[in-house]
Amino acid sequence: MRRKLMSWLATLTVASFALAGNVQAATEIKVAYGNQPGEPIDLAVKQWAKWVKEESQGELVLQPFPASQLGSEMEVTQQARMGSQVIAINSYSNFIDAVPDLSVIDAPYISDTFEDKLKLLESDWFRQQREKMNQAGYHIVVPDVIYGERQLLSREKVSRPEDLKGVKIRVQNSPMYVATVRAMGAVPTPMSLGDVYPALAQGIVDGVENPPSVLYGGKFHEQVKQLNMTGHMQTVTPFVTGEAFWQQLSDEQRRILTETGKRFSDYASKLVQERNDKDIERLKEAGVEVNEVDVAPFRERAREQIPQDFPQWSPGLYDKVLKIING
Fold first, then answer.
1. Cβ-Cβ contacts under 8 Å for 225 (sequence gap 6 or more)
2. Member of which family (predicted)?
3. Is residue 173 part of a domain?
4. Rounded to two decimals, what is the model's pTM?
5. What is the pLDDT of residues 259-270, one digit of tens each?
6. What are the b/e assignments for 152-183, b being 16+ CB within 10 Å?
7. 172-187 pLDDT, tens per residue?
8. Domain count, the chain
9. Which of the chain's termini has less CB crowding within 10 Å, N or C?
């Protein structure tokens, strides 16, 4: 009897180990972004997570982390580059040290529409830049989320570059954004988005630039009331992870992230564009004056000054990119 019992227990133990070996723990990936809960990017990331879970039958899980919970864009992206299981929103211009030419994608006034900007991301030039990103330790998971057309919210109405002389405008701490606001005629003041509201209240800055959904979501209109439609950037943003982590994923996992990432990009872009007009109306209802702006003088200044600010670019890059976009 004792021998039978011991034999039965041994069989049960082996079966348990076999069963455990067949059950793989889900691969969990954090998705980090600075947008607040309820904003279009946040809603789209949560939908992306649902698609990934469905496609992988629960074996691949995306965990949304909004409101910069894991740190700044570049802090989180560097964590990814070092092997962390994270995908982070970022700006192409933030990779200027790793792949300098990529930053031209964020240059002001290089395109008039998002359709024109997306031509650049479908070009052979961009495919070459993606390969350079891989060599630098990064992997672009989703390249083309439409983030919004950036406008200028300020204390005083702005109609021409001269109106911005001495005006302090908050920008993200990125060489391209600093150069853009300087080219527009203002004084760029880098700080995190979370510090903008008190900075406006205390008079540390006189304005902030961003898409209307971000301007409204941050409640910056409670401090400044002039929305100037400068349309200085059609921002298309990537979601990036580390190349080492990407190679650790199975072919199937990479396929799922890539294919659902395309759906995520389309969905996020749709939400952003729908929200844009609604948030302009919400800003009006909150007492903001919306000013149409002749962008020609701003465009002329930008196209003259921006190439001079980036000597690290490949020779002729700016003109090459304009040709692709306008081709």
1. 155, 287, 288, 289
2. Belongs to the bacterial solute-binding protein 7 family.
3. yes
4. 0.86
5. 999 999 999 999
6. bbbeeebeebebbeebbbbbbebbbbbbbbbb
7. 888 999 999 999 999 9
8. 1
9. N
CA dist., res. 229 & res. 292, Å (int): 5
Residue 19 lies in a domain: no
As given in the structure block, the two tokens for residue 233 are: 């950037």
**Has residue 5 been placed in a domain?**
no
State the CATH number of the domain containing residue 260: 3.40.190.170
Work out the widest C-alpha separation in the chain, in whole angstroms: 97
How many C-beta neighbours within 10 Å does residue 36 have?
17
Q: Distance of CA 324 to CAs 133, 176, 319, 320, Å?
A: 20, 20, 9, 6
Residues 228-243 as b/e (b if ≥16 CB within 10 A, e otherwise) read bbbbbbbbbbbbbbbb
> Range of 113's domain?
26-321
The identity of residue 87, as a single letter, is I
User: Quick one: tokens of 244?
Assistant: 């080492």
Q: Sign of torsion, CA 132 172 72 279?
A: negative
The stretches of the chain forming alpha helices (DSSP H) are: 2-22, 40-56, 73-81, 114-121, 124-135, 175-184, 196-202, 212-217, 243-248, 251-285, 296-309, 317-326
